Predict the structure.
Amino acid sequence: MTAMTDDTIRVTPRAMRDEIIAFCAMAGLLAIVPLTGIYPFFVMQALCFALLACAFNLLIGYGGLLSFGHAMFLGTAGYVTAHALKVWAVPPELGILAGTAAAAALAVITGLVAIRRQGIYFAMITLALSQLLYFVYVQTPFTHGEDGIQGVPLGHLFGIFNLANSTILYYVVLAGFLFGFLLIFRTINSPFGEVLKAVRENEPRAISLGYKTEQYKLLAYILSGSLAGLAGSLKVLVAQNASLTDVEVAMSGQIVLMTLVGGLGTVFGPVVGAFVIIAMQQYLAGFGQWVTVIQGCIFVACVLTFRRGVIGEIAHYFRRSL
Amino acid sequence: MQALYAQLLVGLINGSFYALLSLGLAVIFGMLNIINFAHGAVYMMGAFVAYFLLNNTYLSIGYWPALIIAPIVVGIFGMILERTMLQWLAGLDHLYGLLLTFGLALIIQGVFQNYFGSSGLPYAIPDYPAIGGFHGLQGGINLGFMFLPIYRGWVVIFSLVVCIGTWYLIERTRLGAYLRAATENPTLVRAFGINVPRMITLTYGLGVGLAALAGVLSAPINQVRPLMGENLIIVVFAVVVIGGMGSIMGSIVTGFTLGVIEGLTKYFYPEASNTVVFVFMVLVLLVKPTGLTGRAA
Amino acid sequence: MKNSISALLLGTALTLASAGFAFAQDKTVKIGALSDQSGLYADLGGPGSTLAAQMAAEDSGLAAKGWKIDIISGDHQNKPDIGTAIARQWFDVDKVDVIVDVPNSGVALAVNNVVKEKNGVYINSGAATSDLSNAQCSPNTVHWTYDTYMLAHTTGQALVKAGGDSWFFLTADYAFGAALERDTAAVINANGGKVVGGVKHPLNTSDFSSFLLQAQSSKAKIIGLANAGGDTTNSIKQAAEFGIVKGGQKLAALLLFLTDIKAIGLETAQGLNFTETFYWDLNDQTRAFSKKFAARMKNGAPPTMVQAGVYSGLIHYFKALDALGGNPHDGVKVVEKMKSIPTDDPLFGKGEIQPNGRTIHSAYLFEVKKPSESKGPWDFYKLVGTVPGDQAFTPLSESKCALLKK
């Protein structure tokens, strides 16, 4: 799994400064979106996927673990949040909390099973587990099969913020995204993150240095799953529905693609990748039947010509870490 | 009990498709180290080529020649893909091969969908040659415990022969020995004066051709439609992993076994018949990390 | 920005008014055809539905009365979140007034909520779920063409009356499959037949032989296929292979479209019974429309019932706009007007829109022709029975729609 990331660039104080500047620029840009007349729902959707891709990237880019079942966290959190808001009529903050907690619990259970294998076998176990979960959601009545949970009420966050107002909803989603992003950013720049990278590069060596690598990987997996869950809960607020498509294997594939297009193992790559893919879905819609062909061409071009992804290539060009 | 015999036999028939497809996938993975996500798309192309051969007014070539022509045509198409794109990925992580072939699958399926729609095209079971009371492979025989369509019987026997033939080619012949050696140590094999890149191209063609052959075989049973391979690929991929990545015999045996397991599930708990393969995979990987017969990855 | 635009508009309006122009009414309307453009339902809706919408706009005659009609189309890719995102953007940014088609029940129900929230108009022709005019009905929604209740009712009743009194179901393990099976079973039992068994299969199963063997050994007279798309065509094809129809059992496809028959081929599909509400070869009017339609389709295909429903639904919508005279942007008001006018168009004939949004029109029981009876490339159906609209669809007394309680 070493060929995936660019190892020539070290995290130096200067690189750290670049990343902080880039983060401030990103946060600033995102904060003024509602004032620009750009359609906020599009950005909100992209933000949810961006958080999801960042969570996924934490696992593969820094832990070297390719999960092919990350849709299960997105979908589980989505269903729990939607059910909590609609049927139990809880306030939105509790709904988000319940969804994220459910995803975290799922990550603990599946992590204990999956983390025992590496490489392609890890990918296959996560794929299989997410397929099992898909089956469970088809069978259980509370998900309403392919009709999904529809018309989820939004209510007031903390009893004050009316989420039906799209500008307020936008800032809530943005806050959720930035929270998750910073948490990941902090993690990869912590001693924990350094150990994780060491495990990715050479696990036997990390073990010989006395690290309990399984525990590090499990922790990273749980953190990644929980944040993917947070993305799923936020997505319910944006789309006001939860459906089977979020648990499907195609969704897991899409997460991989977003991260790859943006740049595996880069801090900002997954965010860019998510925006690119969501924009493609939205703005290529006019091409009707040719959309899948165009998407296919982009992936082929991406693998053949800019393998480091958008951000990865830029970072490589300027010899910076982004 | 009789019903159970019938389900076992039906499972075996389905298993022969899994075996053929996973065989091709295993050959490609074993020799090129690429997870060929376009396998479902080339399987579909095999079925479509058979359809064109039959329905082209000038050619009007039937099922039997199509069994040979379609895999060759699709195999050549595969070799072009390998020459122009896949070969640049040698030495990179699995993920890139997977994503490239995934992109290729999207393009192929998308193009077919644009020209032929999504609902598909008809393809009949061949009604020639007529021997005795039989019209080609049409009709069926009553086995006592079930009615067996002749065509299904043919599928099992034919794919068994092809599977064993391929296994023999790779594991028991000189050519196969070169191939295996080329994947272990390409530099050394090249030193012996063997054109390694050409062998790899031919191998990819072989793997893709096997998928196309499965496509022709399934055309009379399943609808010939652009998305016919889309859902199959994940299952077939699971078969390869269970069998042990890259193991030829492992994927053949697993293919047939999985068909039978799935057949039994269809009888006892039909809702779970698409899921059982994944349960099986988790269990196998937890007990035996590299698959049933696999070498270390 | 907004102020300057409205100032500009005001300015233009004043100039026009001074030029002696009657500028009392807003007569622009925008239609969004939201469909599956590249997946499972692309053949029965997709680009054909957009074409149907265009033809409806041309045939409405509104252009001559000073109306300006725009049509845009989108691909929901069978994903509810993409469907809602497009619908929202259409209402908020593109100022769409009416959304049509929307196959796939999950997406259809999701879009239903958006249209209600944005007070637009929703004429669904592509989705099967009867919830659109039942538990989840909305004052902004009209459901045209078909639904699970109608399909189950018409096919089930006709076949039981013709002697098919024992049934075995092959059901897709999804909400629409369960709904089809439940509604059909109710009709079978009410008419003195019985259900002897059934299997639920996962969506997108490629091999049905296990299930067909179970159906065969059940000795049921009718095997009901409560599934859709590739699942239905594969079950029919494989049933022929296993000699099920030759063995005396009969197949009843509960949801089948013209394009599916084309895909299976008459050789295999012959003798199959099913229900549709439109067929291109029903009468002179449907033939005339279908001829024009096919000439403009890429593959020369006549319209499916979903595409025909898009056309008819819009024709009726335009009648309501004409009656209102302008200002088409208040969805509830437009739909109320649509409900107040009886429907009458060349494709679906006379009918009405019930208070719950369900359009009532005749349903037809068809049988697939033998290859020897077919005279052309799309000549597939034989009409075996007609069920008047008031008997085909959910009776209002059984509807759980909240709009009826007022």
